[in-house]
Amino acid sequence: MTPTFETSGAGIAIAVVFAVAMGGLMLWMFRVPRPVTAAVATARHALDTARAILVPTTGSPYSRRGVELACRLAQEHQAEIILVYVIEVPRTLPLNMPLERAEADARDALNTARQVVELHNLPVRTVIRRARQAADGIIAAAREHGADIIVLGLGSRRDRVHGWGRTAEELLHRAEAEVIFDRVPD
Q1: Where residue 159 sits, what CATH number does that domain have?
Q2: Residue numbers of the domain that contains 159
Q3: In this structure, is residue 32 part of a structural domain?
Q4: Number of domains comprising the chain
Q5: Could you tell me which of 49, 145, 172, 177 has the fewest CB atoms within 10 Å of its CB?
Q6: pLDDT digit string (tens) for 17-76?
Q7: 40 near 156, Cβ under 8 Å?
Q8: Position 24 in a domain
């Protein structure tokens, strides 16, 4: 007696679906990605290597926008956000002189900024720094904490006296890290 095989419509349908699915999987696995130029690959790599993003904050709405932008940049790679508040101490006073009001303002601004970062579930560190000029404190903090990127939120043109503002100009010329400005529209 010879065995006979009966084919049913359901069996054929299952075999066809399996063959199409396997064919689709093979095409997806062996597809060659689109070629990109070296410039595009370099730009992508620059943000991929960011592990620490420093954000100066003053508690203003535009500095909170800078914190939000930094969080969005950091999310893909879980980069650490370093929040810095620089207390500008006049040259007529010693740097270590107690300034209770300024220190309270710093704690409040950093607490608000920390809450924004924590909403994104990112590692965060806060730093209060004293300096004669804000740019000096930001640059020193970026160097000390190994920041790859500095994100600075800027107010509208009405809020600034000249061009970018003194701090932004200094960062643009002296910072060793990549600097990203986020300007609030007028």
Answers
A1: 3.40.50.620
A2: 50-183
A3: no
A4: 1
A5: 49
A6: 999 999 888 888 888 777 877 776 666 666 667 789 999 999 888 899 999 999 999 988
A7: no
A8: no
